[in-house]
Specification:
Layout (H helix, E strand, L loop, with lengths): L4 E3 L4 H6 L4 H13 L6 E2 L7 E10 L4 H14 L10 H5 L10 E11 L7 E2 L1 H8 L7 E7 L4 E2 L8 E10 L2 E11 L6 H4 L22 H19 L6 E2 L30 E2 L6 E2 L1 E2 L5 E2 L4 E3 L4 E3 L3
Parallel strand pairs: 3-4, 3-6, 5-7, 6-9
Antiparallel strand pairs: 1-8, 2-10, 8-9, 11-12, 13-14, 15-16
Keywords: Apoplast, Secreted, Signal
InterPro entries: EXORDIUM-like
Pfam family, one: Phi_1
Amino acid sequence: MAPIHNFVLVSCLLLLSSFVNPSTATSRMLALVQQQPLVLKYHNGVLLKGNFTVNIIWYGKFSPVQRSILVDFFQSLNAPRLRAAPSVSSWWGITDKYKVGSSKLILGRQILDEECSLGKSLKTSHIVALAAKGDHKNAINVVFTAKDIVVDGFCMSRCGTHGSALGTAGTKKSKFAYVWVGNSETQCPGQCSWPFHQPIYGPQTPPLVPPNGDVGVDGMIINLATVLAGTVTNPFNSGFFQGPPSAPLEAVSACTGIFGKGAYPGYPGEVLVDKTTGASYNAHGVNGRKYLLPAMWDPKTSACATLV
């Protein structure tokens, strides 16, 4: 099994900001960032370009509304240009700049395991076993765990992961990519659902109103976006990343905590606000959905790109 890439929403910079004078935090953080040029090096490996089927394994109980929020996000990734801008598809289009070609994700099978066949306390091996239930050829298998499911490392060191495992495609063994994201609503919203919940460390600024009215699932969207972008740009630990292969900074995890212009540790940046609901967002999706998506590193500008 290939190395697993973990993602934690609260960055080291955010933690550091809690130990400095608030009046000088911004300038010091900017100085620190300037000393660390952000360049994701290409390691000559395979990227997931072309058509890929996304199979979803729902582990535990998700309401129909919660499932529709996440499904609509997948369907928004490659949706034709929407009249309302900016869009989820324009955000996903940044991945096209990682070498030639696009990554088109097509929704495939959905498997419901509401009775929790492997129990409510899972190890990484259980996540891989669940992911293996999806098809393996030209596929990305996504495991979502409900708010009462405990997963090794969840909340302590990760909010989601992506990795690869060996599966069967026809009569041959082949690698398939998988993703796992958990619902942090009751376990650690301050770590994995920021900025929709006050962070457990750092500046205690007021949380934003989630665009779909669900702190846990809207937080899942942020973490899903992070590991999904990492999956297509660094699927087998030989694509685009900075730092050691065991703990790489990838397309979105390199831009942690940035959602709009002017972001700094503890402040997500300038984003759009729905005049009716007061919800914060920066991307339009299908079926009238709105989402808050993290910045993604743009290989053309070598900078974290935001939609607003």
